[in-house]
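Record pair follows.
FIRST:
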Amino acid sequence: MIRFTAILPAAGRSTRFGGSRNKLIESLAGRPVIVHSIAAFLCRSDVAQVVIPTQDAPGLMQVLRPFFGDVLDPRIQFCAGGQTRAHSVRSGVAAADPSVEWVAVHDAARPLISQELIDQTLDLAVAHGAAVPALPVHLTVKQARGPLPAAVSRTIPRDMLWAMQTPQIARREALLRAFETCPISLDQITDDMQLIELAGGEVWLVPGDERNLKITTAMDLRIAEMMVGETRG
């Protein structure tokens, strides 16, 4: 059995969700969003750890205890979050058990991840070194120098464009090396496997899942509630 560490960055400020509300502790079907995300990995026997980079470990522990017990699953580990997502991921990868070869970085705000998608992404990563679930881009994408208004430079063929999801899975050592050799500032990294690409590694895409949405706005949370309701119905 291939074992892996799940890293769920939880240090963001939820600025697009509205006000001072933390989207990760908003209720979704009676449980905080992050509880759904954590539970999706804790239910697996091949998950060695769930590492959570955060700026408020004591506060997050209080959120988790009603759902995971006063004594949390020993696989749950907290580490310091960073100023950007990439900094938080680097902290999580460094905190992961070095004896576990694979790490899966998953958005804590993607609470509806399926076991099938985790399985498929892990299988492809083991076969090729790194893998990411992705969805086709259906909108027409035009390139222009912003901010708008601005003249269009070109229309980008969308048959070669894919929108990234998570979990993004790679070998722990490969990701650590990619952080060490990254040629650009970490605040310019928008995708975990971009680091592998910049290091010259190969990343493969597996078909993503429309239900695996990332909760960024209050409307996303409403959509997730509807999805959960459809499943129950």
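SECOND:
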Amino acid sequence: MPQRYPSSDCREWLNRARSNLALTKSEGTDIYLEDLCFNAQQAVEKAIKALLIKYGIEFPYTHDIAELLTLFQETGHSIPDFVKQAAGLTRFAVALRYPHMSPTIKQEEYEQAAAIAEQVIRWAEDLIFA
């Protein structure tokens, strides 16, 4: 169990991102890829929000990764291309949680989402602990 921090601490948001990443990697016969992709999106969203907190940037209640990255970039921070591709994970934020709202996810899509989430968390960790 990771050390807990106040919800206003970027380290707690990063812990939550890591937790979602761990869930993303918890493949099993009874687990839908859609649910794993949802956790990948959540991992990215929370990692970016951790950065916004670290730099004192207020953010709205949103699951839109592109919007969160834009807020970060507008304050003069650069965003690598590999992080920008995380915006594509926003589609996993809501619709995938409901059977009637999304198509079946393929293994390749899941693997890509998990890899992106892992890269974004590493990027956020580097900035937070630099």
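COMMENT: DSSP finds five helices and no strands in the chain.
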